[in-house]
């Protein structure tokens, strides 16, 4: 499993609905003074995935990009190896279902579904098959990361998080090239946001080898695995790191930067590829919780 080729590929021949819904819902509440406040809260909708009429899992989602979420979920679960295997994705909110039809039956599907791991995903994430399958095949490029690029990227990201500012209760993830934000996705769970971006990458044949992945969520083992599967060598977060997340980053060669906010960050892995080219204006004693 290597980073995507840069060779131009034909467009994906896939029939999909366009069933995105509003990400927020208007509600009324009372503030601390007993005054009525009109505002918005994040949507949360169940979406049950069926693969060739077989029920697999129910995801809780904002529902704004359900087709991309389903596509990326299939990719990151390793249930389908190539996007061209999929013939159609049909989302129907009246039944809260996403029906996937493949051109041929999926090999070893029963074996893959036998084993299920409950992860640290928001709520209870689920990964089918062996979490460590094919990790030895992942080959990520060694890409230099500059301190100044982190600062520039964090400034670019400040322009996003619209749903969080409006309603809260969501995580954000971004696919970045330099300081440019190619895709920014907010979702009720950080892994849904990752999968939605994976769906966009799969549909457009986007290479991950020269990209940076940003998340507002913590860097767990599953997060590192998904980003590595997407061929992305650099993972940046404003949150913290788990022990297994760090161990897998070291094994897979993922540069891991966490607690990134303002001029502060912690580089946990990838020091050989890191260039300290923009020292902070002031040195502060940082206390992390």
Automatic annotation (TrEMBL):
It comes from the Bacteria. Gene3D superfamilies: 3.10.20.10, Cytidine Deaminase, domain 2. Keywords: Cytoplasm, Molybdenum cofactor biosynthesis, Transferase. GO terms for biological process: Mo-molybdopterin cofactor biosynthetic process. GO terms for molecular function: sulfur carrier activity; sulfurtransferase activity. One of its GO terms (cellular component) is cytoplasm. It is found in: Cytoplasm. The active site is at residue 122. Belongs to the FdhD family. This is Sulfur carrier protein FdhD. It comes from Sedimenticola selenatireducens.
